[in-house]
Design brief:
alpha+beta, 4-stranded antiparallel β-sheet, 2 domains, Jelly Rolls, about 40% helix, Arc Repressor Mutant, subunit A
């Protein structure tokens, strides 16, 4: 387990980034990696929040369920993101894998003990909570004030910062989720999303390489459109 922690590519991005290499044995006794297939729930909205999960690889979608059964997608989590930082006793949303993913589970009790032994972890947790709050505020702005082109451009830029570049170093955005999920997150119909993507491609800002990979041809143009 210690070796796996040492070789984890997400370690520097998540809560574990506050720990030194010498702290890894302590970390390995409090966490457990889980390999999950796509469409696997990790946490369920309203259930008792007994653990937190750090995404090691893959992608998860976060959503709340409306009374009529519809899903309001509130975000997508990738490597380094922490799921389940509940303020109260229950999870505020459901988190479900979009792709085959690996997450690292740590009970909330173990997390509290880890923070007591390593105060830097608590500082990291506060910083991540602040980032989460800022992202929520950005989402309110996106849904309330931005046009369809601005929403899609902002989304692609955000994903490109979290996606690996192409072999030639060009930035790219990885979109393994179905268009209906992207549309639900952006407050757009799937056909509107498709139309905006075509418009951005015609303008030379992006190139759709595959169904789940977009090359960012002109980041400055995309920034201007966002």
């Amino acid at each position: 387990m210690t070796g796996r922690c040492a070789g984890c590519s997400a370690r520097s991005k998540g809560l574990c980034g506050a720990l030194t290499a010498g702290d890894l044995p302590d970390l390995s006794t409090t966490s457990r990696p889980l390999d999950l297939l796509s469409a696997t729930p990790v946490v369920m909205e309203g259930e008792e929040a007994l653990a937190v999960f750090t995404v090691m690889s893959g992608m998860l979608k976060l959503y709340k369920t409306l009374p009529d059964g519809r899903q309001q997608i509130t975000g997508f989590a990738t490597a380094g993101d922490v799921i389940g930082l509940a303020v109260g006793t229950g999870y505020a949303y459901t988190a479900e894998t979009v792709t085959a993913s690996t997450v690292c589970r740590m009970s909330r009790t173990a997390l509290r003990r880890l923070m007591e032994r390593h105060p830097a972890v608590q500082g990291r947790l506060l910083a991540m909570t602040s980032v989460e709050l800022s992202a929520a505020q950005d989402q309110i702005l996106l849904l309330g004030c931005k046009t369809a082109v601005e929403r899609v451009s902002s989304f692609l830029l955000a994903l490109s910062r979290r996606s690996r570049p192409l072999a030639d170093g060009t930035p790219s955005a990885f979109l393994p989720m179905p268009k209906v999920d992207i549309g639900a997150y952006l407050g757009l119909r799937p056909e509107t999303l498709s139309r905006v993507l075509r418009k951005l491609e015609s303008a030379g800002a992006i190139t759709r390489l595959t169904n789940d990979r977009i090359r960012i041809e002109n980041p400055a143009a995309l920034e201007a459109a966002a």
